[in-house]
Design brief:
By secondary structure, the chain is mainly α. About 60% of the residues lie in helices and about 0% in strands.
Length: about 500
């Protein structure tokens, strides 16, 4: 039976807590320096508040800073070497020079680094864990607030869109110190928050307006390309909400203003191209036509990389086939299922997001003379994947999307298994390196945090927590009769919860 109001209240509390636990376990599943370009991002965080002894010190060269050696060298011994554990000898207590940071040429907007800087302490490991935990809490907290503010018919879209695209890249990036953490959050919530703003009334409408603005600033303030994705999200929301009345024209003021804010953020940083000299492999000897042909054939590999076809971390943590095939199959199946229903507004929105998934990476690849696999990374286009998954499901009248019980169980079991295997693989990668394939993560430990909790406890807790999230969500929609009564979707009317 579908749960009564007390059961729904319990689920509303339990799901965010379980999701937070799942993300926190991912946050401690890898060492300092394990997310892409972490040396750059950590240095930028440490120096974002200016000069401080033992934290970030200036030198005679304005482009060079002195930072803690254990921060700069954290990933040097294991990055790109999957057999190497994270047991790197670190120069503790030494300040070393680096020119890799956001101080000399502001490639990234400074907002993300500034918000992270209060967590900086003399203990590098503790600082990183606090930052990762904060970003996990930020993700869960904002999306929970958004869920409660949305009209009831739109709430399942937020949940489904987040869940079916989370494994494994989202679970890894959200609790990290990589600016992509906020880009993921923005992509997950902005389009549906702005859409809810168009449809809500009263106080909740203006709270959703404020939340839309916050999500736009979080995304655009972390990565310049996320500002572009923010504009796409706002356009999708405006199209989904289209009405021929004066109120709609007035409501358009908000996305128009936020669009201008996004443009300002985009041009305020030097990250105008996604591919940088540090990540690109020069294929400039190829003609434009050849680049278009090669990248056109290989582009689906970039999309599949989001689900684990490409490695996590420094692209060196390769996911087993059960992870990426299962995660990709669930995502593709539900998107295809979503195409059963829709009006012209949905089809225009879906077509726009899908076209962006082709045009944006193809433009960057051809412009910079690189091919898929040597430049643009899956995490760069991941926000568009998240939006596509959510928009594709617009139009269903039931929270369960009309899926049968067997289908729901397959989705829940598949994503739970994929997350569990991905978390185990990520832990194994750093604890011993991938030259060991033992199931027992507690055996022959070469690297682990200075903490009383063991790797197996972290793996079991994270696996169980994510399974609880999916189990509770499936329980909530197990009997579709109540869904039909309480979540009827009428696109052209304002709905107040």
């Amino acid at each position: 039976m579908t749960p009564r109001p007390r059961g729904r209240l319990l689920a509303t509390i339990l799901v965010p807590i379980a999701m937070l636990v799942a993300l926190l376990t991912w946050g401690i599943s890898s060492p300092v320096g394990s997310s892409p370009d972490d040396d750059y991002h950590m240095a930028s965080i440490w120096c974002s508040a200016g000069e401080a002894e033992g934290i970030c010190e200036t030198t005679a060269d304005p482009d060079v800073r002195l930072l803690p050696g254990e921060l700069l060298k954290a990933a040097k011994c294991y990055a790109f070497i999957e057999q190497q554990s994270a047991s790197c000898p670190l120069p503790e207590g030494k300040m070393l020079p680096t020119d890799r940071g956001n101080w000399s040429y502001a490639s990234y907007p400074p907002f993300f680094y500034s918000v992270m800087s209060p967590f900086v302490t003399q203990d590098v490991s503790a600082s990183i864990v606090m930052m990762r935990s904060f970003n996990a809490l930020l993700y869960v907290g904002i999306l929970t607030g958004l869920f409660l503010l949305l009209p009831r018919p739109q709430r399942p879209l937020l949940v489904w869109g987040a869940v079916i695209s989370a494994v494994p890249l989202g679970m890894f990036l959200i609790p990290s110190v990589n600016p992509s953490s906020w880009a993921v959050l923005s992509a997950t919530g902005l389009w549906v928050a702005a859409w809810g703003y168009f449809r809500q009334t009263g106080v909740r409408k203006w709270l959703l307006a404020g939340l839309s603005a916050l999500l736009l600033v979080l995304g655009a303030g972390s990565r310049s390309d996320a500002a572009v994705y923010g504009v796409i999200a706002l356009i999708a929301a405006a199209v989904l909400s289209f009405r021929r009345d004066r109120r709609y024209l007035l409501d358009l003021i908000l996305p128009a203003v936020l669009g201008v804010v996004a443009v300002v953020f985009f041009f305020s940083a030097g990250q105008s191209a996604i591919v940088t000299g540090d990540t690109a492999v020069d294929d400039s000897g190829l003609s434009t036509g050849t680049l278009i042909l090669i990248n056109g054939k290989m582009l689906p590999q970039l999309w599949a990389g989001v689900f684990g076809l490409s490695g996590l971390g420094w692209l060196d943590t390769i996911m087993p086939g059960i992870v990426w095939i299962t995660a990709l199959a669930v995502f593709a199946a539900l998107c295809f299922w979503g195409f059963r229903r829709g009006d012209w507004q949905k089809w225009v929105s879906v077509a726009g997001v899908a076209a962006s998934l082709v045009v944006i990476p193809m433009y960057i690849l051809v412009h910079d003379g690189v091919t898929v696999g040597s430049g643009v990374q899956p995490r760069y286009i991941y926000p568009l994947i998240i939006m596509l998954g959510g928009v594709a499901l617009v139009g269903f009248s039931r929270a369960g999307l009309g899926l049968g019980r067997v289908q729901l169980v397959i989705v829940g079991a598949g994503l739970s298994a994929a997350n569990s295997v991905a978390l185990h693989t990520n832990l194994r990668r750093y604890i011993t390196g991938m030259d060991s394939q033992s199931f027992n993560l507690n055996a022959d430990i070469e690297w682990w945090w200075n903490a009383p909790v063991s790797p197996m406890v972290v793996w079991a807790g994270g696996s169980l927590a994510f399974a609880v999230v999916l189990g509770v969500l499936i329980w909530m929609v197990w009997d579709g009769r109540l869904d039909a009564e309480t979540t009827r979707f009428e696109p052209q009317e304002s709905v107040s919860s």
